[in-house]
Amino acid sequence: MNTLSSFSRRRNALLAHIGDGIAIIPTAPEVVRNRDAHYPYRFDSYFYYLTGFTEPESVLVLAGGKSILFCRDKDMEREIWDGFRHGPEAAREIFGMDEAHSISRLDELMPQWLANRKSIWFALGADANWDTRVTGWLKQTRNQARAGVSAPGEIVDVRMALDEMRLIKSADELVTMRRAAEISAEAHRRAMRAAHRCANEYEIEAELLHEFRRHGAQAPAYTPIVAGGANACVLHYVGNDAPLRDGDLLLIDAGCELDGYASDITRTFPVNGKFTAPQKDLYDLVLAAQAAAIAAVRPGQHWNAPHEAALDVLARGFVDFGLCQGTPQAVLESGDYRRFYMHRTGHWLGLDVHDAGEYKRDGAWRALEPGMALTVEPGCYVRPAADVPEHFWNIGIRIEDDAVVTADGCEIITAAAPKSAREIEEWMAR
Ligand code: GLY
Ligand code: MN
Ligand code: MN
Description:
This protein is 37% helix and 18% strand. By secondary structure, it is an alpha+beta fold.
């Protein structure tokens, strides 16, 4: 759990960064799903990172050394229908703000706040409505020029500064991420155990969601992928409504979100609890690729090193198993391996499942540093084709864990989900 002091420490860091500027960070809007029904509300990650405040219709303003929150007023009538609202007064006190105002006063107060600031720090381009509103305030501020007011001369993307902060996780963020990872690992264990009594992918999805919610995770961090047999070769398969078949593999990519933080696990296992020989060949290959990639997750390595390590192993295996022709080196150089492995080996992980943070800097892959969190997720997806050995057709495998870079390597926070073929078979047999 982020503590109050973490949020204010981050605000102070951003205040120091923007100097004479003003930062404007709105939270996410509520989104209608159809007519009167809304999508489950999810706050904006940047806004949450700086406030811990989860109510919609809120904006954080940082300027002149102060944190100012705009939020909804108390409203007994609305609270009877929709639930509790802090209101500005309580929000200011509980969330450690210097000032708080009703969101209904935003347009009235912002031109004054913009006056005599050098720059506006804002996620320009992220939301057309906010772009219009902020540039409208800017115009009003400029209109006061004859009264001696100077308006900000530039708009800077505030996300650049925040991405850099979000890339290195603090101790309290890691506590939440470890717990999210544990819950997700528990869900994968449950799914493996349930497979023998489930006839359809959606029944497995229900087991995952049950386990997430049972432990207090608020939502899945992304739409779960529950893909039996050939469906595993569709990378973003989310139909999750096909019958499970004896003899097929089942690929599950599912992770919960806990207190804003994502986890992201993939496991692939046999529906009937026992790998066939060709399934095990490819499974062990992906597992070896993952082990090589994990060994490359440590300070001193760069972002792409785990991907390169996984590719080396996969290219050799693809040649050994007759999936690719020629030498492994030639397969790497030609990119032939992309027929069976077409995605990258990971991404940053945090408040967003594909988290904030640059992968390259000044044209070079960035170096891994303690506190960075990333996934390691090689795979292999074989579609039927005349030049592909038939016993591998329709096998799709991915193995994905979440890693936190430590001083001398990495911590795998999703390790509780069974992973080797033997561990999986034993867990499913019990
Ligand atoms: N579950 C999303 C991903 O693996 O990138
Ligand atoms: Mn992932
Ligand atoms: Mn995933």
